[in-house]
Design goal:
The protein has one domain. With about 110 residues, the chain is an all-alpha fold. It contains 6 helices and no strands. About 70% of the residues lie in helices and about 0% in strands. Helix 2 (about 20-30) crosses helix 6 (about 90-110). The relative contact order is 0.16. Bound molecules: heme C.
Length: about 110
């Protein structure tokens, strides 16, 4: 019985709790006209492999610069460059991992 309660509790926790990606990325990106999915596709087109996409994303999240941005000039003129993200290493990696898992399937189908 206790096991069942724990199982149900754990499941509920996973379904309802926001993960690092929802908390740190989606919340802010909701305000932007270009979707996170579209931005992911730009990364996939430019960096292609899983490892290089993740490395490039992590680098940009820490050090966003216009020169390395994948976004169109017009977008950057309007919305500017984002602020470097101040979340700890583990959370950033978790967020990028979930970001990758969320869109890589669609990326392959393109
Ligand atoms: C406080 C707001 C904010 C948060 C938090 C945020 N972003 Fe962004 N992000 C932006 C803005 C604004 C841009 C567009 C300007 C730019 O590209 O620098 C952007 C651009 C991007 C881009 C395109 C980068 C490029 O090359 O220009 C990606 C990919 C991205 N964000 C992913 C993420 C992920 C993943 C997270 C969470 C770990 C995240 N963002 C958190 C505001 C945010």
């Amino acid at each position: 019985m206790v096991k069942i309660i724990i199982a149900v509790f754990t499941l509920t926790f996973f379904v309802w709790s926001d993960n690092a990606y929802e908390r740190h990325c989606v919340s802010c990106h909701r305000e932007l006209p270009t979707s996170l999915q579209r931005m992911f596709m730009y990364y996939l087109e430019i960096y292609s492999g899983e490892k290089s996409v993740k490395v490039a994303l992590k680098r940009y999240m820490r050090n966003p610069f216009r020169d390395v941005s994948v976004m169109p000039e017009l977008f950057l003129d309007t919305y500017g460059i984002k602020q470097p993200l101040k979340l700890d290493e583990r959370e950033l990696e978790e967020a990028i991992e979930i970001y990758w898992e969320t869109y890589q399937v669609h990326g392959r189908l393109k």
